[in-house]
Amino acid sequence: MAQKTDAVKNEQQEAFSSAVRILGIREHNEHELREKLNKKNYDEIVLDHVIELLKHYDYLSEVRYAEAFLRYRLEKGEAPWFAAQKARQKGAEPVALKLALEKAEQSFDAWSACKDVLDKRDPMGSYKQDKRLWQRQMRYLQNKGYDINTILQVMNNEDD
Fold first, then answer.
1. CA-CA distance, 80 to 74, in Å (whole number)?
2. CA end-to-end span of the chain, whole Å?
3. What's the CA gap between 101 and 105, in Å, rounded?
4. CA dihedral (90, 57, 48, 41) positive or negative
5. Side-chain half-sphere CA neighbours of 77 within 13 A
6. Is the CB of residue 92 less than 8 Å from the CB of residue 69?
7. How far apart are CA 54 and CA 23, in angstroms?
8. What is the distance between the alpha carbons of residues 160 and 157, in angstroms, rounded to a whole number?
9. What is the Cα–Cα distance from 48 to 34, expressed in whole angstroms?
10. Which helix (H) or strand (E) holds 146?
11. What number of CA atoms fall less than 13 Å from residue 80's CA on the CB side?
12. Residue 41 burial (CB < 10 Å; 0-12/13-18/19+)?
């Protein structure tokens, strides 16, 4: 019996160490972390215990994950609502995601962000001379989550 409890403790320590290494690379939500640890074939009871420990020590935080995810996606030029949609698909906790989204939207200027993305993608403004390129840039910006009105304002802006 003692051997069995030692084996469980060893598995818990191994799973905990593995989880801390994973979280050391970047923030994860509980869903992602469980998936990664499940691939290592840890027992479900062990995983439950490890997840609770990680939350207790504040190593695993849904709020930090949501904020980091949105911040990263915004740096990539995506609109906040679009980044939040991707976070939902990754299993982010809805309450934490809502708080992070509200915080991100407070400081988000859609026109400036859209213009920055366009300037980075086409610094010479070549889209103004080529209709196909103009349409391609427009689709690209739509795929980043910007609304059509903002895109048209940015693309038709002549003071460049």
1. 7
2. 76
3. 6
4. positive
5. 13
6. yes
7. 10
8. 7
9. 9
10. none
11. 17
12. exposed
Q: How far apart are CA 117 and CA 121, in angstroms?
A: 6
Q: Is the distance from CB of 146 to CB of 114 less than 8 angstroms?
A: yes
Question: Tell me, what's the pLDDT at 8?
Answer: 75
Sign of the C-alpha dihedral, residues 154, 83, 102, 25? negative
H helix runs in the chain, sequence order: 2-25, 30-38, 44-56, 62-75, 80-89, 94-106, 110-121, 131-143, 148-155
Confidence (pTM): 0.85
pLDDT given at position 47: 95
Tokens of 51: 């997840």
**pLDDT tens, N- to C-terminus, the chain (160 residues):** 556 677 778 899 999 999 999 999 999 999 999 999 999 999 899 999 999 999 999 999 999 999 999 999 999 999 999 999 999 999 999 999 999 999 999 999 999 999 999 999 999 999 999 999 999 999 999 999 999 999 999 999 855 4
